[in-house]
Amino acid sequence: MSRKNDVMKEKQVLASFISKLPEAIIICDANGLILLHDHQSEIYLLADKSNPVIPVLMTGKPITALIDKNLVEHALDEINEQLRKKVENTVSTFILQTHALVLETQVVPVLNSAGLFSGFVVILDDITQQSRAQKRVESLLNTLSKNARSPMASIRAAIEAMREFPGMDEQHQHQFKEIIYKESIVLSDILNSVSDEYSRLINTNKTLKPLFVKDFLQTVSRRSQDKLGLICRVTNRFDAENIKIKADPYTFINVFIFMLGRLKTETGLTEFYFNFYKKNAIALIDISWKGDPVSPQLLKQWESLDIGTQNMVLNIGLKEALNQHQSVIWTYPEQDEVNDMPCVRFFIPADESLVQNILEPVSLIPESRIQIGDIEAFDHSDQALELDNRLLTELSYTSLIREINQATRVEEIIGKHSQLPRLIHSMLTSGTKIKTVTWLVTAFSDAILHKLLTFATKALGPSPVPFAFVTLGSEGRKEQTLKTDQDNAVIFKDSEDDGQTIEILQPYFLKLGEKVCTWLDQSGFDFCQGGIMAKNPKWCQPLSIWKDYFSSWIHAASPEDLLHTSIFFDFRFAYGDRQITDELTAYMMNQLSNWTGFFRNMAENAVYFKPPIGFFGNFSVRSKAPHKKCLDIKMASIPIVDFARIYSLKHGIRATATQDRLYQLYVKKVLSRNEYNELDQAYCFNMQIRFMTQIQAILGQNIKPDNYINPKHLSSIEKKMLKEVLKKIKAIQAKLRFDFIGDTDGLIS
């Protein structure tokens, strides 16, 4: 009896001690049954808080009844691994969310006199305000980055203008000084506001746990074998042994397990490889495999999915988990010096706490992603030095888009297009990729079109039925240059009301098309010479008529019947009801399935064009004015566009951009890696030449741009590359003839 009383007395002393601790405490045996807990743990963990006065018995219950089993297993597994390695101060930490609270949870082992695991203690600390502060800090940094860009650009532009033209008159000097003064006040206010709030929040900023990448990946490898039946081999360079990152171990392990599960499902493989190294201050971790790559689009879909864990805060989805760790992921085919296999690459700030105490926030985007930033728009290298009164902020891409979006009158839109050439010129001369440039031009055009449609629908009133305004041709493919005309159409929904006939509905949409097309023409997008515009009654029709159009084109009897309709197969939603275009796309794809005649006719038209290169490898140029000794560089790109369109439609690819289509063809193994790379590079080279030719016409000669180039004006390297591009066009035409026409006159090399 005395022995029992002594034990009870010890328990009471222990209970009295832990009740005075600021954290909540739970003590469990080796099987996870709760032996002792305090009242604070009840407040934190119990679901029924309707009557907190009445005590609720937790003793004797398994800890997994209160905390997610996955979290507990993770903690015990990590503790076991640390004990095996004889790590001092063994502890496992994870983040737990329950009700409206965010809890930092520590699990500490209890060892008996023989040093064997006999139980564990769970310590819960409320960090709800810290978590909210972290989220607010991230928001503040984003706000700072976004709002400071415009005044900084204005200040820089004014200073550069004053340095460029030291002899400018006093009036201009005063204007630029006034700009610098006003914008510096704006910038100062932004910095002060953010700094004050950041200082209040940073003290509650929760730091993540430092991890050695090698140990982390070994844990992931072991877990993925247990959970997914995968074999994951960890390799690293000799200089990567001590690379560290900061992470919530449980969350980040589950990010990797989630990715491996998705990759297993997508590729059908059960063996993967981990490789890691450090570049500058970034730790790069690759999951690679022997097989086909995954597409960026698929990766984006995965980012929106739940990573399959419970009771976690701010990181339920893959994207949120990555953001918490200031990390991004991207997919790579076999195309860099590190991996000769496809991979998914994680970009994570490295923990360099041994050499520095403060890590500045890192926002990293892989090179293959589109990025626009710090655009140099005051570049006078190819122009006469004459003062331009427009500020950099008026020429920068972000400012242009903002001004378009904030416009309240059509007059504010007109003239914006003329500001693109300098912007594009600066981007190209600084090495920006063509895909980024065309994306910028497309985003610019889309912003103008969207704003003009907003003005038009406001002026005309609500539409009688839902509709979709679509773009076609180069704009539909997101490939507009500076010499472009408008190709667009309206698809409106068939009315279920018998009284609302086409004759009653169409006039509204024709007025809409007339307004928008006229405004586009005034804004720098010329009328289509072929009349393929929304103001043309033929291209302003209900969905049922559009289905009839596509059915007739697909089942056309001859190539001539398709000669002027290929651009319609590049249609892209621009404004209105997207479901209408989705329905038309689905209908088109269904009609195309197994209809070989269509692809034969399209191929016949595609191979009709003869590349302007002679038998002996010399350029074939025009012999008559107005473009004597020139060749049409746009026509040299069309066969690549046709090739991508035909094969994409054949294989059910819904992308419209040529480069996106080529990549999807590579992913589907229609193109080999070499074929894809050569075609993509050929297309990019042609587009680069087109842009530079047009910019030179606009900025250098002050004339309307066109697509004609004189090969003699090219450098020797450009001439050689252009000849290779034209030879490649011959090769892809041979492939088209072989695959769709039955002609065996060679294949793509």
UniProtKB/TrEMBL annotation:
GO molecular function: [protein-PII] uridylyltransferase activity; phosphorelay sensor kinase activity
Coiled-coil regions listed: none
Alphabetized CDD domains for the sequence: HisKA (cd00082), NT_GlnE_GlnD_like (cd05401)
Entries under InterPro entries matching the protein: DUF294_put_nucleoTrafse_sb-bd, GlnD_Uridyltrans_N, HisK_dim/P_dom, HisK_dim/P_sf, NT_sf, PAS-assoc_C
A Pfam family assignment: DUF294
Name of protein: histidine kinase
Domain PAC as annotated: residue spans: 85-139
Family annotation (SUPFAM superfamilies): Homodimeric domain of signal transducing histidine kinase (SSF47384), Nucleotidyltransferase (SSF81301)
EC number(s) stated in the UniProt entry for this protein: 2.7.13.3
Reaction catalysed by this enzyme: ATP + protein L-histidine = ADP + protein N-phospho-L-histidine
Naturally occurring in which organism (per UniProt): Desulfobacula phenolica
